[in-house]
């Protein structure tokens, strides 16, 4: 960004007439007020994918960027391109624009051009760390052993500002465009940065109100993400666990036990598994597990922060993909009986 500020200053120095200096200065002041140095945010959560085609002029490029909500003002962008002398230097290519770029950030990216071929990787929400390592190896050739070693490297975790024994839970699942030659550290840094963006001032105030830390929100979100594939249930399930936490009840979350047996070829758990002596086992230990049990997605994190308010304390699968919720243990036991009957009939 500094080089563009320098170019603007040079332009002012080359202008001799007093009235023109005043006019340019006034115009630039207006642009400053328009926020040319501040981040521009668009509505989508994922990075915006934009193709600048070969032969497009500045006006056409500007229209492409405005339609994608990368820049908010046509006039400001075109003017800055002219004043910075980059009108003939913007390069064609497929770009991935992260949210929160300033006008100068965008101009700089377009002037540099796409340096490397990019690979699209879709990372499922609620993915276990070892499965993420395998996915990245398959899609990008990243050494899965190296990735897992970094995930448990205390020095590396500390450098990222993570106070945990594992990186699991701190990487945001999303569709990403990574450079073809990106390293494990590059990927981790990008995913961690996207996760950090979710914990803005609103989230911090909410956590203070809930008296929960970030790692606790992520731990709860990871359980929610593992409980159901139906996003509309997330906030209700979150409400159940918030209610149980307030009553100092054991969470008794099956996904925490599944996590302890995550290298099995199936996700079934047996009664004997409920007795595994581990702080992660919420059938044995009160409160949330000491760290997330997967990498939760945006919706699950939002649900953990903003649970549905109700008086449910229990839920069980209903046999059709969803869950039946109940307020009392007696009601819950009846629902469990109905589910077991459904299983006997359909298995």
Element layout with pairings:
Elements: H1 2-14, H2 18-33, E1 48-52, H3 58-67, H4 74-83, E2 93-97, H5 103-112, E3 118-122, H6 129-140, H7 144-151, H8 154-159, E4 175-179, H9 184-198, H10 201-210, H11 214-227, H12 234-246, H13 254-260, H14 298-305, E5 314-317, E6 323-326, H15 329-346
Antiparallel strand pairs: 1-2, 3-4, 5-6
Helix pairs in contact: 3-4, 6-7, 11-12, 11-14, 12-14
Into which percent range does the helicity of residues fall? 40-55%
Global outline:
elongated
- Number of strand segments: 6
Helix-strand category: mainly alpha
Order of helices and strands: HHEHHEHEHHHEHHHHHHEEH
Major beta sheet, specifics? 2 strands, antiparallel
> What count of helical segments does DSSP give?
15
- Order of neighbouring strands in the sheet with most strands: 1-2
**Weakly predicted, low-confidence segments:** none
Mean of residue pLDDT?
89
Taking the alpha carbons of the first and last residues, their distance comes to 63 Å
């Amino acid at each position: 960004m500094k080089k563009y500020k320098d170019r603007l200053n040079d332009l002012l120095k080359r202008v001799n007439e007093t009235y023109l200096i005043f006019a340019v200065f006034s115009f630039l002041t207006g642009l400053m007020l328009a926020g040319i140095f501040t981040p521009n945010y668009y509505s989508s959560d994922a990075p915006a994918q934009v193709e600048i085609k070969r032969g497009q002029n500045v006006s056409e490029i500007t229209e492409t960027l405005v339609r994608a909500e990368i820049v908010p003002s046509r006039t400001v962008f075109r003017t800055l391109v002219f004043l910075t002398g980059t009108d003939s230097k913007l390069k064609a290519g497929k770009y991935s624009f992260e949210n929160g770029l300033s006008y100068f950030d965008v101009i700089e990216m377009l002037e540099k051009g796409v340096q490397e071929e990019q690979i699209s990787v879709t990372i499922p929400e609620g993915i276990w760390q070892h499965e993420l390592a395998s996915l990245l190896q398959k899609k990008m050739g990243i050494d899965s052993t190296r990735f897992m070693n970094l995930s448990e490297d205390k020095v590396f975790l500390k450098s990222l500002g993570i106070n945990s024994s594992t990186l699991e839970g701190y990487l945001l699942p999303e569709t990403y465009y990574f450079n073809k030659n990106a390293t494990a550290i590059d990927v981790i840094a990008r995913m961690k940065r996207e996760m950090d963006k979710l914990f803005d001032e609103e989230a911090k105030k909410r956590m203070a109100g809930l008296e929960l830390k970030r790692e606790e929100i992520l731990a709860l979100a990871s359980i929610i993400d593992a409980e159901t594939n139906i996003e509309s249930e997330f906030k209700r399930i979150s409400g159940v666990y918030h209610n149980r936490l307030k009553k100092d009840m054991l969470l008794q979350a099956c996904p925490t036990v599944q996590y302890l047996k995550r290298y099995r070829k199936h996700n079934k758990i047996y009664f004997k598994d409920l007795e595994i002596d581990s702080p992660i086992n919420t059938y044995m230990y009160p409160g949330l597990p000491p760290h997330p049990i997967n990498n939760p997605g945006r919706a699950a994190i939002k649900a953990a922060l903003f649970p549905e308010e109700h008086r449910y304390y229990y839920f069980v699968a209903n046999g059709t993909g969803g869950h039946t919720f109940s307020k009392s243990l007696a009601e819950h036991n009846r629902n469990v009986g109905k589910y077991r009957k459904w299983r006997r009939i359909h298995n």
